Structure formats: C-alpha cells, structure tokens
Amino acid sequence: MQDLDENTVTDAVLAQMATTPDARMREIMAAAVRHLHAFAREVNLTPAEWITGIKFLTEVGKACTPIRQEFILLSDVLGLSACVNALHDKTALEHGTQSSLLGPFFRQDAPEYALGQSIVQAPHGAEIVMYGQVTDAAGKPLAGATVDVWQTDEQGAYDLQLGNGETADMRGRFRCDDAGKYHFRTVRPLGYSIPLDGPVGDLVRRQRRHGHRPAHIHFLIGAPGHRELVTALYLADDEHVDSDTVFGVSRSLVVSPRANDPNAPVPGLPAIRYDFSLGRAADNDTGRVGADPAQIVAAAD
Ligand code: BEZ
Ligand code: FE
Fold first, then answer.
1. Cα–Cα distance measured from residue 167 to residue 149, given in angstroms and rounded to the nearest whole number
2. 194 lines ligand 1 (CB under 6 A)
C-alpha cells in the first residue's frame, strides 16, 4: 500500500505511466506531470484555485469553433507558441528567415493571384507594394515558390472579422517567377487587438495588458524539398512593435515602407522589399506551429 503525500504522488504517477509504449508520448507526459506537480507545490495551489483553473479551461474549450481556436490564443498570450516557434527554428537543417506566429486568421483556401495584382478587393487606405525574392539558404532562387499572404486592412480588421467569412479579402496566394521573385500590391495594414471577447481576453484584461499586436503582414512560403516558412513582417513605426501581446516580433522581421525606391516594381508607391530564405527540409520536419481552426475541428470530429 502506497502512502502518498504531495511529493511522493509525483513518482507514483510516473511509475504508473511508465507502461506507455510510445516513447515520445511517455517522455512528454512524464515531463508534463513533473512540471504540473512542481507548479502546484510552488504556488501551494488551493482547491478553489484549482477549480478556477478547471472552469477557465472549460470556457476556453467552449469558445472554440471552426473559425476560432481559443486554446491557440491562450498558447499565444502565454508565449508558448513563440517558444515552440523558436524551438522549431533551432531544429532547422539550414537557417533561413526567422519564423513568427501563424495566428488564427490563416485560411487554407486563399485566392490565387498573378504577380503584381492587389490582394485588396477595394483599396481605401494608403497602397503599398511588397516585393522581393525567395531563395534557399545559399541564396539560390527558388523558382515557383508559393507565397501565401494575409493581413488586416487599414482599420486593423481581417476579412474574417468583417463579414461572414465567405469573402476572401486582404489575402492571396502568389507563385514566384523563374528568378524566385514576387511582388504584389496591398494597403498598409493597421495593428489590432487580438480577439478579447472570450476567456483569454478576460485573462489579458485582468493582467492589465493592452492586448494589441503591431501592424504586420503574414507569410506562408513553400517550395518542394524546403522547410515551409511561416512568418510575418512588422511595421517599425507601430507603437506596439516592442510589446506584442503574443511575442511574435523579432528584429529581423521589422520593416518600413520606403518612398521613392528606385527598384520598386510599381513606381510611385511606397515599397517594402523583403527577401525570404528557406532551409532544406529534414525528413522528420513536423509541420507548422498553428493551423486553420476549421482543420482542427475537422480533425477532432
Ligand atoms: C495574428 O497575427 O493574426 C494573431 C496572432 C496571435 C493571436 C491573435 C492574432
Ligand atoms: Fe495577424
């Protein structure tokens, strides 16, 4: 008969779970139990606090729909998504452009556009042009690389927040030319508040955090044989560029539109030039950090 206390219970659980046949699952669950128990001991977790936590996670689960993944949002505001992204970058065979959060507004089925077209259905704000090249880690152009792009409009709203999610706007997919080059027109995005109308928003407010993300443009770039790149470019002059609520900004991803760029493919428009590089894919590359929420719901059904 075991005689368990708040310390010995940890070893008892680990011993029982040691039968898990899948070695990676065994490792992850053992570490999760060790850290969870250590956390409870460190803060001397009371039954009332424990049930508050259970109720909070229940609300997070209830807020998930095919167009909303509240658990990923929770992971984002706790910096876990950024942490997993950084770990993912460290396992790359070759170092390319730094990654950043996929976020909840990515959709699998963006409209395809020809190079140079605008991703905005009816531009109201200041237009800009984005251009650059996609290469491998050695700088060799990746002809035909696909470039998915999505962003907010000049008021800080994604298409999914404006309508019923059926009209794609401010998003599109391009295919690079033979020199790996891309360019497209868009509007200058505005920063925005992450969705704060759910349990994660309640948490952020109780912590007196501002809840904003600096203005950015998302990219998902792919080329056969190369590790998919999920990243975003952040506008330098946004007031929240140093205090992103979800910790997505890295120095190498901060950009400024440039007026009178002599190389801009659309003369007269402020231009952002950014060259992306993709490392080779490893056999066991485990995919992107994040997902289209509809895919997660479909996989759970
Ligand atoms: C976004 O960039 O779209 C985003 C990322 C994380 C949480 C909320 C929004
Ligand atoms: Fe975003």
1. 16
2. yes
